[in-house]
Design a protein that fits this description.
Layout: H1 2-13, H2 16-31, H3 41-51, H4 55-62, H5 72-78, H6 81-91, H7 95-113, H8 130-137
Helix pairs in contact: 1-7, 2-8, 3-4, 3-5, 4-7, 5-7, 6-7
């Protein structure tokens, strides 16, 4: 899987190290309890995916079993385009590139942020995703 992600990112951008360095901060913001999609952090992000008809995927990410995949189209259905555009600009890639990367990494990031199948307590620190991103980008 990590080799696959590196190939996706490398093929899209040719600069795997640059995107790998930018992603932890964006993902931390996305999953953090103070900010994130729709301003509500991880619970709001999960609600967005559930509202897009992806409740089964969300349950698998938060749960302790295997993570069900999503596609770039699922990402677009769940997260408003203007938010995706803002994140893409911040990371320095296109909207389409971002949705491809998020489709691959978001299930793992949410799984990492919900140890033991539980949402973090409200007000808790955002998870450290730098190690996760590093592992996903190693082949």
């Amino acid at each position: 899987m990590s080799e696959f992600l590196s190939q996706i990112v490398g093929g899209l951008m040719g600069n795997t190290a640059g995107i790998a360095a930018s992603l932890p901060g964006m993902l931390t913001q996305l999953l953090g309890t103070a900010q994130g999609a729709a301003g509500g952090g991880l619970p709001a992000l999960l609600a967005q995916f559930e509202n897009a008809g992806l409740g089964q995927q969300v349950s698998s990410w938060v749960g302790t079993g295997e993570n069900l995949p999503v596609t770039p189209e699922h990402i677009v259905a769940a997260i408003p385009p203007e938010q995706l555009d803002a994140w893409a600009a911040k990371v320095g890639i296109s909207h389409e590139q971002l949705t491809t990367v998020l489709a691959e990494i978001l299930p793992h990031a949410i799984d990492h942020a919900t140890p033991n199948g539980q949402l973090p307590a409200e007000g808790s620190a955002a998870p450290d995703l730098s190690g996760l991103v590093g592992r996903l980008f190693r082949g």
